[in-house]
Amino acid sequence: MSNKRALIITGSMVQDHEFIYPFYRLKEDKVDVDVFNGSNQQVLGFFGTKIPPQKDDKIIQQKDIDVNKYNLLVIPGGVKAMEHMRLNKDLIEIIKKFNQEKKLIACICSGIFLMISAKIIKDKKVSGYYAWQDDIENAGGKFIDAEVVVDSNLITSPHYKYVGEWMGKVISLIK
């Protein structure tokens, strides 16, 4: 799978599983992965995982994000990370642009909050953690209680226990 590129947007206190599994799974399939973590250095996930894991993994700065260079946007969850990230209006605009360009957007658990803030789930079937059902419906989305939900360019999953199914669908669609 050459010439494919993904951007993972995340932040301090990300749900570690929801970052690490997609990060390595995409690399396994020869997808180039860039990470935006809101910093110019490694940050820590909720359980203490370094994000990104190695000091030589590419951390991209927000000003350098060019939507046209990517085939896929990955949005892992982590409530604390989302609380801060969704306040970054420029980052929300980047998510909107990925959607406008019909780029694949893979989102899991509380990452749905960034999609809600970007106003891209109206009239879309999406999954997210069950506690966010009201938020999804209030944003005009149709909440689906399933391991993975695909609607157009959006691939959503409710919980890290489904990262395998979620990334399996992502990999099949990016090919």
Describe what this molecule looks like in 3D.
There is one protein chain. By secondary structure, the protein is of the alpha/beta class. It has one domain: Class I glutamine amidotransferase (GATase) domain (Rossmann fold), CATH 3.40.50. It has helices at residues 16-28, 79-85, 89-100, 112-117, 133-138, 163-174; strands at residues 5-9, 32-36, 43-44, 50-51, 72-75, 104-108, 125-126, 142-143, 149-151, 154-157. The strands form three sheets. A six-stranded mixed β-sheet has the order 2-1-5-6-10-9, with helices on both faces. A two-stranded antiparallel sheet has the order 3-4. Strands 7-8 form a two-stranded parallel ribbon. Helix 5 (133-138) links the parallel strand 7 (125-126) and strand 8 (142-143). The protein is globular and about 40 Å long. It starts with a strand and ends with a helix.
Name of the CATH homologous superfamily: Class I glutamine amidotransferase (GATase) domain
Task: From the 3D structure, determine the CATH topology.
Answer: Rossmann fold
Number of helices: 6
C-alpha Rg (nearest Å): 14 Å
What's this model, at a glance?
32% of the residues lie in helices and 19% in strands.
Characteristics of this structure?
175 residues, alpha/beta, 6-stranded mixed beta sheet
Topology:
Blueprint: E1 5-9, H1 16-28, E2 32-36, E3 43-44, E4 50-51, E5 72-75, H2 79-85, H3 89-100, E6 104-108, H4 112-117, E7 125-126, H5 133-138, E8 142-143, E9 149-151, E10 154-157, H6 163-174
Parallel strand pairs: 1-2, 1-5, 5-6, 6-10, 7-8
Antiparallel strand pairs: 3-4, 9-10
